[in-house]
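Q: Given only this backbone (279 positions), what sequence would you predict?
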């Protein structure tokens, strides 16, 4: 199934989808920070026993009581209610010699004795009787020696999902800020060239600027590269790579219905990369 038709994406698929749309990675640490900022809510697909019965005092009915009449077997998509899901992720630590031995090791989320609360957002198959409010999840079949269903203390990281609609919104905001940043860079560069033209009283053509003026412009371009968050080490004449500085600037100039050759962009980027500190 195409990623663009899926409603929920695994972390690997979310990364592939984000790369395809933005040419940038979206790793677990990125998604964890986005979850902390409230921009993404990771989900898990679970087949579990679930209880979200509320007592008169407002507390949740405990699933470890002998009377389990409020337990429901649920399959569906759950979101964390009272915690950050990916804060429960602890990556496996290993060195180079252990890498081969750990290649099949399962990466997991680790929970605090099953006391995390989850909310059901979509039951599978769909059920018209909605289940509202947070509750506890626990094993669908395994019981402990006392006869209670066992806590779920780990979930495979591969079972974590991202809603594609949330990714699309994130991508749209990312592209807007990226284009806006490049447009600001282009506008400031145009102002610099206009100022240089006025100062030298010569046409604002690259070949007719004095060496001193070209170096002044190059220093400003280098500063704007830093302001825009572009990579200083990007090869100046590399325009076949979609995320190279040359290609990003060329595409934005083209989107503005303007024309500057990629060789000319490379010339100025190359000159900027050769600038050194004055002090």
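A: Predicted residues:
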């Amino acid at each position: 199934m195409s990623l663009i038709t899926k409603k929920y994406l695994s972390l690997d698929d979310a990364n592939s989808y984000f790369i395809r749309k933005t040419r940038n990675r979206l790793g677990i640490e990125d998604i964890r920070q986005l979850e902390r900022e409230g921009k993404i809510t990771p989900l898990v697909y679970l087949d579990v026993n679930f209880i979200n019965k509320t007592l008169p005092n407002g507390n949740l009915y405990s699933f470890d009581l002998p009377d389990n009449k409020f337990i429901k077997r649920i399959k569906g998509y759950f979101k964390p209610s009272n915690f950050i899901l990916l804060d429960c992720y602890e990556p496996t630590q290993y060195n180079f010699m252990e890498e081969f031995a750990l290649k099949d090791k399962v990466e997991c989320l680790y929970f605090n004795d099953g006391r995390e609360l989850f909310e059901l957002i979509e039951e599978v198959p769909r059920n018209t009787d909605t289940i509202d409010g947070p509750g506890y999840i626990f094993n669908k079949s395994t019981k402990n020696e006392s006869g209670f269903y066992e806590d779920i203390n780990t979930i495979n990281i591969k079972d974590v999902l991202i809603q594609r609609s949330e990714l699309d919104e994130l991508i749209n905001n990312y592209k807007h800020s990226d284009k806006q940043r490049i447009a600001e860079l282009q506008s400031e560069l145009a102002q610099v060239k206009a100022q240089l033209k006025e100062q030298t009283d010569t046409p604002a053509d690259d070949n007719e600027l004095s060496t001193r003026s070209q170096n002044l412009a190059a220093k400003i371009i280098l500063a704007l590269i830093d302001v825009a968050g572009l990579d200083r080490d990007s090869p100046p004449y590399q325009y076949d790579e979609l995320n190279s500085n040359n290609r990003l600037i060329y595409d934005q100039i083209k989107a503005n219905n303007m024309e500057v050759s990629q060789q000319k962009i490379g010339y100025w980027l190359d000159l900027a990369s050769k600038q050194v500190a004055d002090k």
